[in-house]
Design a protein that fits this description.
Order of helices and strands: HHHHHHH
Helix content: 55-70%
Low-confidence stretches: none
Number of helices: 7
Shape: globular
Radius of gyration: 14 Å
Distance between the termini: 47 Å
């Protein structure tokens, strides 16, 4: 029997999540569909994403400790999240994963885990 480890542990813990966030947001800022819905100063968004992904992947509940229950759909309602934007977000994440040291065999697992929320946040038509 194998020992259970979280996705957080499997991808490399805090350093891997930090690296993923740091590789991801420049891609978001360069994307013509995504950049208009993000602030120019992306630093606070990056920190929240780090906290959230740490928790979402099975690490310490950093996001909840600072901000309470994630309620991510509600937190995204002020922004027009369209199907094309959800796909663009996932594409940026796929490219960011390719730029990290996260084992390649886990890239699809990470993307599948993030695909549900990305599509759940859709609140507008293209």
């Amino acid at each position: 029997m194998s020992d259970y480890i979280s996705l957080y542990e499997a991808i490399g813990g805090a350093p891997a999540v930090r690296s993923l966030v740091e590789k991801f947001y420049p891609k978001v800022q360069a994307d013509p569909l995504l950049s208009p819905i993000f602030p120019e100063d992306i630093t606070p968004v990056m920190e929240k994403q780090y906290l959230f992904l740490t928790q979402f992947f099975g690490g310490p509940p950093l996001y909840s400790e600072q901000f309470g229950h994630p309620m991510m759909r509600a937190r995204h309602l002020p922004f027009p999240v369209t199907p094309k934007r959800a796909e663009a977000w996932l594409s940026c994440m796929a490219r960011a994963l390719a730029d990290t040291d996260i084992p390649e065999e886990l890239h699809q697992v990470v993307l599948e885990r993030l695909s549900g929320p990305a599509h759940h946040f859709i609140n507008s038509e293209d």
